[in-house]
Amino acid sequence: MNDKKKERYIQLGLLGGLVILGVLVYVLVPGFYDDMWELILSGDVQRMAEVLQSYGPWAMVISFVLDVLINALGFLPSIFFSTANGLLFGVVPGIIISWLAETVGVVLSFMIMRYILRDTAHKVIEKSEFLLKVDDFSGKNGLVMMLFARSIPYFPSGIITALGAISQISLRDYIIANLIGKFPSTALEVIVGHDAVLLQDNLGRLTVVILIASVIYFLLWKGYQRWAKQR
């Protein structure tokens, strides 16, 4: 099978899978898209947690699927769902759910951009001279570059995915980098979001977490700069 034919099958498989997933959600949970779209636009995480909780034993599954879809789209913020997961399921379960869902989502997004929307990804990168340099660098050191980028919390996911999609990083390295890099960034987002909403009960922990994270990321940035100069 030649490369073009293989790529075509991948494209059809991705599109078919997304359509089937979307239809299943629509059929099994009537009104789900309307509710979630309204919540995403409002950014009310407490209300989001309440709506998810109303789905009872399916709440965790629905939250996971929705978080995957948001990260697969790449342009919608997932921080609201990370916070809602922490509020609804607890900090540790919330971290695990959000971490796995976001990882699956950005891998799907990567495959969509690489095999279907590659021209769009190129246009995103071409708008910035800095991103062009980063993309060139990521082609040679994709795994390390992607791991570092994904470990940064609150950074726009779509830009990082676009960089990966048009670089030379392999799908395997991309999955490994995201699985590892997504954990610290997602954990920080869940903890900070959870404690910020419940500030009166968690002010001490929130302060300590922010201070420790600031020091760690500062040291990581300095280490990364030294590594980049050596390359």
What are the segments in which pLDDT stays under 50 over at least 5 consecutive residues?
none
Radius of gyration: 19 Å
Helical amount: over 70%
Shape designation: flat
Question: Averaged pLDDT, please?
Answer: 77
Class computed from helices, strands and strand pairing: mainly alpha
Query: How far is it from the N-terminal to the C-terminal residue, by CA?
Result: 37 Å
Description:
The protein is mainly α and 231 residues long. It contains twelve helices and no strands. The chain has helices at residues 3-28, 32-42, 45-53, 59-73, 79-89, 91-115, 118-126, 129-140, 142-150, 157-166, 171-197, 199-230.
Keywords for this structure?
mainly alpha; 0% strand; 231 residues
Offer a quick outline of the entry.
With 231 residues, the chain is an all-alpha fold. Helix content is 85%, strand content 0%.
